[in-house]
Amino acid sequence: MGISATIYNTIFKRTSTMALAVIGSAFFFERTFDLGTDYFFDRHNEGKLWKHIKGRYQ
Amino acid sequence: MAATVGRICGAGLFKSNSLATVNQISSYSTTREWTRGRKAFLGSLGLLAGGAGALMYTLDQSVKATDLELHPPKNMWSHNGLFSSLDHASVRRGYEVYKQVCAACHSLRFIAFRNLVGVSHTEEEAKAEAEDQMIEDGPDDQGNMFKRPGKLSDYFPSPYPNEEAARAANNGAYPPDLSYITSARHGGEDYIFALLTGYCDPPAGLVLREGQYFNPYFPGGAISMAQALYNEAMEYTDGTPPTASQLAKDVSTFLKWTAEPEHDDRKRMLIKGIAIFTFLIATSYYVKKLKFASLKTRKIEFRPKNN
After folding, report:
1. What's residue B8's pLDDT?
2. Dist CA A53 CA B109 (whole Å)
3. If you measure CA to CA, which chain A residue comes closest to B90?
4. In this prediction, what percent of chain B has a pLDDT beyond 90?
5. How close, in Å, is residue B279 to chain A by CA atoms?
6. Can you tell me where the transmembrane regions are (chain B) (predicted)?
7. Residue B61's pLDDT is what?
8. With 70 as the cut, is the pLDDT of residue B13 above it?
9. Among A6-10, A41-45, B29-33, whose mean pLDDT is lowest?
10. Chain A: nearest CA to B192, how far in angstroms?
11. Which of A24, A39, B184, B238 has its CA at 20 to 30 Å from residue B62's CA atom?
C-alpha cells in the first residue's frame, strides 16, 4: 500500500477524520502564515513601528 | 457540476464559437466596399485623433493648468509604499505639534486619549496626557457641569464650546476639526504640508481683508489662519531640530494617522491578502484545468447496436 493510499484510508475516507484534519491543518497553517507575513511587514518597516521605538519611552 | 453541464450541452459549450460572430458582423458591415486607401486614411485619422486626445489629457493632468488653484507637490512620505507603515516616531512628534500649536484653535473631536496607547505613547504616558487636560463632565447632584482631569476614555477636548464661539473668536472663519482632515482635503497630507509651509506675500493686485493671509495652496488664496509653524516654534522632547518643515511633516503624519488609524493594519492585511489569494488562484486554476481536461478532450462516437 502506497503512502497516498495510506493517507486516504486513515484521513480522507471518513468525514469525521477529514473534518478534524481540515480544522487542525487550518490552525497550524494560519499560525505559520501569520508569522511569515508579520515578519515580512516588520522587517520592511524596521524602526518605524511602535514596537520598535517603544523601548525609548519605558 | 461540470459533468452535468457537459451532459446537457454536449461539447458545443466548450468550443469557441467566436468565428460565427465574426462572420455575422462582417456580413452586416458597410466598410467592405471601401477602397484600401480610404481604409488606411480613416484608420490613420482615427489613430491621430485618439493619440492627440490622449496627449492633451496627459499634458493637462501633468500641470493641471486649467484652473487657478496651486496643487500641492507630492512628497516622499515614508508611508507612501504599498507595504510601508506610518513612522510612529513622527506621529509622536506630530502629536506634540498638535498639542502645542494647532490645539489652540482646532479641535480633534474623534480621537480619544486611549487611541494613543500602542501607537505613539505608552499607557502611562497617555494617562498623563489625559490628566493634563480638564474635561467637562456632569451634571453633578446639583445639575451643574463641572471640570475634572481627563481619563483614557475621554476624547480630545475642543478649544471652543461650539462652532459659533469658534467663528466669533476667529473673524468669522471656522477652524475645521482636524480628525479626518487628510481624507477630507484634495492632496491629503501633501496638502497639509504645503499649506503649513506655503505662506508668502500676496501677488500685486490681490486685496486681503482684515485678518486674512495669503496662501497659494488654499483655494482662493485668502486664508484666515496665520502662519503657525516657524523654525524653533516649539521644542521636541526627543531633541529633533524643530525646523518649520520638520514640524509640518510631523503634524501631517500625525493627522494622516488620526484620519486613518487603521493604516498599518490595512497594509499588513494587504500582504496577507496578496499571499493567500496568489495561492488560492493558482490552486483553483490548476484544479479547473485538471477537471476540464477530460471533458474538453473527449470524443463522442455513435455506434448503432444492430450493425
Report:
1. 56
2. 27
3. A48
4. 75
5. 12
6. 40-59
7. 78
8. no
9. B29-33
10. 21
11. B184
- Backbone phi, psi, residue B149, to 5°: -65, 145
Q: Which residues make beta-bridge pairs with B134?
A: B149
Spatial separation of the C-alpha atoms in residues B242 and B234, rounded to whole Å: 7
What is the ipTM for the molecules in this complex?
0.86
Chain A segment 14-33 residues within 8 A of B by beta carbon are: 33
Q: How far is CA B264 from CA A36, B59, B94, B261, in A?
A: 17, 35, 17, 8
Give dist(CA B98, CA B177) in Å, integer.
12
Annotated binding residue B106: yes
The length of chain A in residues reads: 58
Residue B92 C-alpha, separation from nearest chain A C-alpha, in angstroms? 10
Q: Is there a binding annotation on residue B105?
A: yes
Mean pLDDT across chain A: 93
Q: What is residue B60's predicted lDDT score, i.e. its pLDDT?
A: 77
| C-alpha Rg value of chain A to the nearest Å | 20
Chain A within 8 Å of B272 (Cβ-Cβ)?
yes
Asked whether the predicted pLDDT for residue A35 surpasses 70, the reply is: yes
Is A41 part of the contact surface with chain B (CB cutoff 8 Å)? yes
Q: B225 among the known binding-site residues?
A: yes
